[in-house]
Specification:
By secondary structure, the protein is an alpha+beta fold. 48% of the residues lie in helices and 8% in strands. It has two domains: 2-39, no CATH class; 52-197, 2-Layer Sandwich (Muramoyl-pentapeptide Carboxypeptidase, domain 2), CATH 3.30.1380.10. It has eight helices and four strands, in the order αααβαβαββααα. Strands 1-2-4-3 form a four-stranded antiparallel β-sheet, with helices on one face. α3 (72-87) packs across α5. The longest helix has 28 residues, at 16-43. The chain is globular. Bound molecules: zinc ion. Zinc ion (ZN) binds at residues 121, 126, 128, 168.
């Protein structure tokens, strides 16, 4: 809508035609937004799995996109990843970060998660990233670019797993998951599992 308004001001905001057409255009834009909002849950499906769950709050807790709920060292690394992806023309968004144990168990019951309430999402040590424009169905290019960059930053990418989960990144390797779950200092563990190069990137 900002761009729309700008477009109109460029073409002469004071003219009578603009005054007549602007409300129509704004109305059309609002209708379009409402339409796409209603449709959004259907687009955010994952392959042949049940529609809607990834953007739904149904069953065991809200979808959480707050980076402040992630382990700080992990959130910093994800931020660097976002900057690198944006520099390459991608439009990453955090679809899900922290996840309640109830929601984790619910997703497992639907086949979305293998680890359920023991997922690293529950520990603030995992994120799911998709393209803002592409959604779940149109993020393959983003994921293929994201995987190597994320690994270069010391993150673990679900695109390498047999349970193919290319949107998923986590702070530590699968072999380290149980250590992180039981750690009293999970952020330190996550931080130490990142490469020294990553820490340099983040600390500058
Ligand atoms: Zn995930």
């Amino acid at each position: 809508m900002v761009d729309l308004a700008r477009g109109y001001s460029r073409s002469g905001a004071g003219s009578p035609e603009v005054k007549q057409t602007l409300p129509l255009a704004v109305g059309a834009a609002i209708l379009a937004l409402l339409f796409f909002r209603r449709r959004a849950p259907r687009r955010w499906t994952y392959g042949s799995k049940l529609p809607g769950i990834a953007s739904s709050s149904a069953g065991g807790g809200e979808l959480n996109r707050d980076p402040a709920m992630l382990l700080p060292s992990f959130a910093d690394t994800v931020e660097v990843l976002f900057q690198r992806l944006r520099a390459r023309g991608f439009d990453p968004v955090l679809n899900e970060g922290y996840r309640s144990p109830e929601r984790g168990a619910h997703l497992k019951s639907l086949g979305y998660s293998q680890t359920g309430d023991r997922s690293l999402h529950v520990y603030g040590a995992a994120v799911d990233i998709i393209s803002a424009a592409g959604g779940w169905q149109g993020s393959e290019d983003l994921w293929q670019a994201m995987g190597p960059i994320a690994e270069d930053l010391g993150l673990v990418w679900g695109g390498r797993w047999s349970f193919y989960d290319p949107a998923h990144l986590q702070a530590v390797a699968v072999s380290e998951q149980s250590k992180l779950r039981s750690s009293s200092e999970p952020d330190e563990l996550a931080s130490s599992s990142m490469s020294s190069r990553v820490r340099e990137v983040i600390l500058v």
